[in-house]
Amino acid sequence: MGFWKGLWENFQKRFMEEEALELDADIASMEEWDWETLVKDRHLLKLSDPYERQKFIRSCLDQMQDSSKEVESLTAEYNMVTAYLTDMEELEALPESEMQEVQHTARILLLREEEHRSFEEKKNRISETEFRQMAQLEDTMPKAYQDVKEAENYRDKIRADLSKLEGEKQGYLYQKEELRRTIANIRGMVLICCMAVAACMVMLLILQFGFAMDTTLGYILTAGCGAVALTFLYVNYLENTKEFRRAESGFNKIILLKNTVNIRYVNNTNLLEYLYLKYKITSAKELEKKWDLYQQEKADRERRLQNREELDFYQRELLKILRRYRLHDPTIWAHRPEALLDRKEMVEVRHSYVIRRQKLRAQMDYNRKLASEAQKELKLMAENYPDYTKEILDSLKHYDIGE
Fold first, then answer.
1. Does the model's pTM come out above 0.70?
2. pLDDT exceeds cutoff 50 at 16
3. CB–CB of 374/57 below 8 Å?
């Protein structure tokens, strides 16, 4: 196992060195081309002309000053990158027991970071406006839901009562109409019966006086049948009239009761409209759903806050541990705990810093070359034209050029 691990590390090291050499070659060729482009036309300048000469001197001094400042800036960055690489060596050289402590804290920190990312990616269950609204109602929420629920139940009960009363009303209307027709029919039957009795009497009179017949029995039968029929019709008339009055009385009671229930329904409707407007809902079910979502969202936010506190805590703990060692900047590892746990990740980080340092070194060499070439140009000018040496030195006083 150790053999394959060593072989893999040597392969990575060789790969990084070859890549760095290729990068240096590319930058070097680019620098030579840039420099040649900058100086190839200088021999064409007329140094005998004061304006052209001063322009040339200032150009060289500007180049030296700019290159010096750039080297100074790049040197600071180069030293910082070098310090980071040194920090990696220090970390890899830690004893196993101390490295286990570092990795244990880094592992917990990495878990907290993953949990934090999952919280950040999760969408809110309700909008911020709804969350603040439900937070304001948190103390009164159970009673508020109960009030809306009771009002809705009462509304349903009133609707059922109104439906029942409407059915009874229609029943009484039908009953009254039937009784009215029955009474009218009885009156018609009484009239018919009277007319029949009268017709029979006329016929009996004709038989008695016209034909001298004995019609005593006919008178008795006609009078008896008429009396029985009229008595029967009269009794039915009285019963139906009494029933009609009862139906009319019941109908009036239903109308009065329905008016009372309608008033309750209007009051209940107004109350519900107010509650719906107050809680910005359309039903108690919606309020219950918002409340459930609010409680879940509140729990998520509390866990998110706890996660943020734990994340900060373990970052401080990791920094506290790393500050025991000679590290230039331990803070970068508090934000890259995966590099402390995964060797491949550490190799990638080292590789990126190596590439950065090579680029910085190439830029520093390039700027030093620019400054050196500008300095050579001024020295060559002073050697070829001694009369201009004082002018060069006077111009140099106005520039801040490092070594």
1. no
2. no
3. no
